[in-house]
Amino acid sequence: MFYFLMISFIVIILIISCFNIFQKRTNAEKELKTLNNEIDQLSREKDLLNFTLEETYSEEFLERIAREELGMQKPGETVYIIKKETSEDEKEENKNYNFFEKIVNWLKSLPE
Question: To 5 degrees, how large is the angle CA 96–CA 99–CA 104?
């Protein structure tokens, strides 16, 4: 009887240990899958950044930046700037309000 209880106890301990190991392995596999997905995403982002970096060294990119951001032009060229019409909502958003007007507008936007 003693041997039977002792063997049963050892078997139960082994089953519990196997179950714990199985849970740890399952959690590790989930974490590995998550990390692999993150690696894939970061790899795609790295490729995009490398492409963008390579593009910045091209003549076309430098010319576009010089024209759009610095307002430069080629000799003999005339630059025309076309202004976009703004709607009433955009005009309202672009207004510079003082502190009290901002508070009043914020209070008006709150749901009743």
Answer: 95
Using CA atoms, how far apart are residues 59 and 112, in angstroms rounded to an integer?
Answer: 56
pLDDT, mean over the chain: 83
**Token pair 């909502």: residue:** 89
CA angle at 73 for the pair 70 and 77, rounded to the nearest 5°: 155
Residues with Cβ within 8 Å of 55's Cβ and at least 6 positions away in sequence, in order, are 61
Prediction pTM value: 0.46
8 Å CB contact between 72 and 66: yes
Helix (H) or strand (E) holding 104: helix 99-109
Q: Which of 59, 40, 58 is nearest to 48 (CA)?
A: 40
> Sign (positive/negative) of CA torsion 34, 36, 39, 44?
negative
Cα separation, 57 vs 88, whole angstroms: 41
The residue ranges of every structural domain in the chain are: 2-80
